[in-house]
């Protein structure tokens, strides 16, 4: 049994190393603007080795480097951010139902974006406002939970309260929005990678990169934290400090992704579960694998969003509509309980 | 009649254009003088109306504007929140609207108690809200007519005629329809004379997003342009908008990009300057040639005067040599005077929207 699991874990790690790269290469060839695979290769080769292979015509370079590549990188980073944050929060709370929604991050970000789109115009970009309010939401949760912030129930209850508050504020902003600002907001709430550009990525990718890396480095400690408070204390771990550190990192990472992509649901819940089904609950494996598979999942979802039909399907809809039934089928077939 | 400094074109052509855009009969209308009137509304419902309509609640901004243009604004007793809070034009063309009670907010539920207190004879609702339309009729026991042009000139003109009959303003309605047809005919008359003189290809950035675009926008076609998103499937059924990708815009490579400018400058999420400076769009012809401009766009469908001004403005943008003496403000003020009877209305709107700066190259 253990041998099988080890084999599966090895296979999962090999696949995790290969899959995002293969998908990235394939995704570079998908898009509304038809670029022959050879032209994709020569254009990229031309940019990497300016003196070498001839680069493709200018529109190809513009599309590949200014439109597709930033979008694909955002998909990879945002997918990794959402999945790793979800896996980390589930580990420290020992609760499989925790993800970014549970701590008010998503509704905080949504309210920030709404304020910007409806009332602030271009003075405060939606991305900046979403990031600020996602962080405000998490700080509010920690403040309300107070000294009991390391207690799962208290913290989750605080998250529910803060989410409800921001949801109500979001509805209030929607009520007073003009119909066109409301449309922008509704589309933001559905999630999209369509507007990705290097300017946004210059801020977002480093934050996500640092957040995901540190969370992966903390995977050993998450195993200790998931043992139980008494056991963790016996091992000399400062539970409150460590949990708050993981919460803040997960919040920063998710907020950075959500601010640019809008609300993309379920990635933080589904991916860690799928990984646990394959390799068990050991966070040393779950956290890094979640990063790779979260990145791959969002990349595939975005390929469908931009390539399936002539218009864009909001990616948040796809992750929910396709991801949830897929997850249910896997769960039924595996015959396992929630991990 | 001269329009935009354009010399006379073939009367035959103009007559043909008028015949195309004007409804031959006000479809969906039947009745006799002095008796109840039957109207088939945009939802295909037959509504029986009293012969005399004195007190009106209108939840559909486009209908409210036409009621005012027909000279029946004083019969309005309740309006929608959109016109009070967000419409930059309505307060200018009908200042008494500031005192009218607001009974609903853009498709959200009607304040029934307030509406009953206002004792309307008729209520105009949006065809997009069919459940609300039927609910109001059941609860208030009064005729509810769901009307909107849904962005079609033909529907707009039929709407003016239908409202003219409902309000007993048939002559005024005929006057407005004739004026609209005549002006629109003049614009269409300047279209490409030869098959090879195809108008510019156009991408429209509407609803505060670079990627949201109308799948049908008749002012562009009327002005001799080609909407590249024409024929796409709308994102939502019953609406006119689709979301496209940046790659799609590059693939279309439009000659002109139009940005919805119905917002005051500070509220615009998408700007002409932003598009011109966006490196992702640098290879697009419209950006290379500097042919990125504001236009007005839908504003809860249309204002009949504004869409006429917009069509003329677009015709000037697409065919500058055909309109050497074009002056947007002068043309706008003249058209608005015809519809709303006051001087300087379009100039006043332009001060809010900064459209004095929209002068074509």
Secondary-structure topology with pairs:
The complex is a heterodimer of chains A (339) and B (361).
Chain A: H1 2-27, H2 37-48, H3 58-93, H4 105-120, H5 126-145, H6 152-176, H7 179-190, H8 198-217, H9 219-225, H10 229-234, H11 239-261, H12 267-279, H13 283-307, H14 315-334
Chain B: H1 11-21, E1 29-31, E2 37-40, E3 46-49, E4 56-58, H2 61-69, E5 76-80, H3 81-85, H4 90-93, E6 102-104, H5 112-117, E7 122-125, H6 130-140, E8 144-146, H7 153-166, H8 170-189, E9 201-205, E10 212-214, H9 218-222, E11 226-227, E12 241-243, H10 246-252, E13 256-260, H11 272-277, H12 285-288, E14 292-295, H13 304-318, H14 328-340, H15 345-353
Parallel strand pairs in B: 4-5, 4-7, 5-6, 7-8, 9-11, 9-13, 13-14
Antiparallel strand pairs in B: 1-2, 2-3, 10-12
Task: Characterize this entry briefly.
The complex is a heterodimer of chains A (339) and B (361). Chain A has 339 residues and is mostly helical. Helix content of chain A is 77%, strand content 0%.
């Amino acid at each position: 049994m253990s041998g099988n699991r080890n084999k599966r874990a090895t296979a999962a790690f090999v696949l995790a190393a290969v899959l995002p790269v293969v998908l990235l290469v394939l995704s570079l060839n998908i898009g509304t603007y038809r670029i022959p695979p050879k032209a994709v290769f020569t254009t990229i080769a031309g940019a990497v080795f300016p003196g070498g292979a001839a680069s493709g015509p200018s529109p190809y370079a513009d599309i590949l480097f200014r439109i597709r590549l930033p979008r694909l990188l955002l998909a990879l980073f945002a997918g990794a951010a959402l999945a790793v944050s979800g896996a980390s929060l589930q580990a420290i709370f020992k609760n499989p139902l925790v993800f970014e929604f549970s701590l008010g991050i998503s509704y905080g970000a949504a309210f920030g974006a709404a304020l910007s789109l409806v009332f602030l115009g271009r003075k405060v970009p939606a991305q900046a406002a979403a990031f600020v309010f996602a962080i405000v939401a998490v700080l509010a949760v920690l403040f309300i939970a107070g000294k009991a912030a390391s207690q799962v129930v208290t913290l989750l209850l605080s998250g529910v309260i803060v989410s409800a508050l921001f949801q109500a504020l979001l509805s209030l902003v929607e009520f007073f929005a003009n119909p066109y600002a409301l449309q922008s907001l509704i589309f933001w709430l559905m999630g999209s990678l369509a507007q990705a550009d290097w300017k946004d990525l210059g801020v977002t990718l480093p934050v996500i990169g640092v957040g995901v890396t540190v969370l992966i480095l903390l995977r050993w400690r998450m195993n200790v934290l998931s043992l139980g408070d008494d056991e963790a204390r016996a091992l000399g771990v400062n539970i409150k400090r460590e949990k708050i550190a993981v919460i803040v990192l997960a919040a920063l990472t998710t907020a950075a992704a959500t601010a640019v992509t809008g609300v993309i649901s379920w990635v933080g819940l589904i991916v860690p579960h799928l990984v646990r089904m394959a390799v068990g609950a050991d966070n040393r494996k779950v956290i890094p694998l979640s990063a790779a598979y979260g990145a791959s999942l969002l990349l595939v979802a975005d390929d469908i969003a931009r390539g399936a039909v002539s218009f864009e399907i909001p990616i948040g809809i796809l992750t929910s509509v396709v991801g949830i039934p897929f997850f249910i089928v896997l769960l039924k077939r595996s015959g396992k309980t929630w991990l | 009649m001269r329009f935009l400094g354009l010399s006379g074109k073939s009367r035959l052509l103009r007559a043909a254009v008028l015949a195309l855009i004007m409804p031959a009969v006000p479809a969906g209308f039947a009745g006799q003088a002095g008796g109840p009137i039957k109207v088939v509304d945009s939802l295909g419902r037959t509504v029986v109306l009293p012969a005399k309509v004195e007190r009106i609640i209108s939840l559909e901004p486009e209908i409210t504007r036409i009621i005012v243009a027909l000279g029946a604004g004083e019969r309005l007793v309740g309006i929608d929140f959109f016109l009070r809070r967000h419409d930059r034009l309505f307060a200018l063309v009908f200042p008494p609207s500031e005192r009218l009670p607001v009974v609903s907010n853009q498709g959200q539920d009607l304040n029934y108690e307030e509406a009953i207190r206002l004792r309307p004879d008729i209520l105009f609702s949006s065809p997009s809200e069919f459940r609300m339309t039927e609910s109001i009729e059941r609860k208030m026991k009064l005729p509810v007519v769901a009307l909107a042009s849904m962005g079609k000139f033909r529907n707009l003109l039929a709407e003016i005629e239908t409202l003219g009959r409902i309000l007993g303003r048939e002559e005024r309605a005929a006057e407005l329809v004739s004026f609209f047809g005549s002006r629109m005919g003049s614009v269409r008359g300047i279209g490409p004379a030869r098959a090879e003189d195809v108008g510019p290809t156009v991408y429209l950035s509407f609803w505060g997003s670079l990627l949201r675009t109308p799948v049908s926008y008749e002012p562009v076609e009327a002005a001799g342009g080609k909407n590249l998103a024409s024929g796409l499937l709308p994102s939502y059924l019953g609406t006119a908008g689709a979301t496209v990708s940046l790659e799609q815009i590059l693939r279309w490579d439009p000659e002109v990009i139009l940005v919805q400018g119905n917002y005051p400058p500070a509220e615009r999420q998408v700007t002409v300057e932003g598009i011109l400076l966006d490196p992702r769009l640098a290879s697009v012809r419209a950006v290379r040639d500097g042919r990125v401009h504001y236009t007005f766009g839908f504003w809860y469908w249309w204002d009949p005067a504004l869409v006429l001004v917009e069509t003329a403005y677009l015709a000037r943008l697409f065919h500058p040599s055909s309109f050497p003496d074009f002056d947007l403000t002068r043309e706008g003020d003249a058209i608005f005077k015809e519809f709303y009877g006051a001087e300087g209305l379009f100039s006043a709107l332009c001060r809010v929207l900064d459209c004095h700066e929209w002068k074509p190259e």
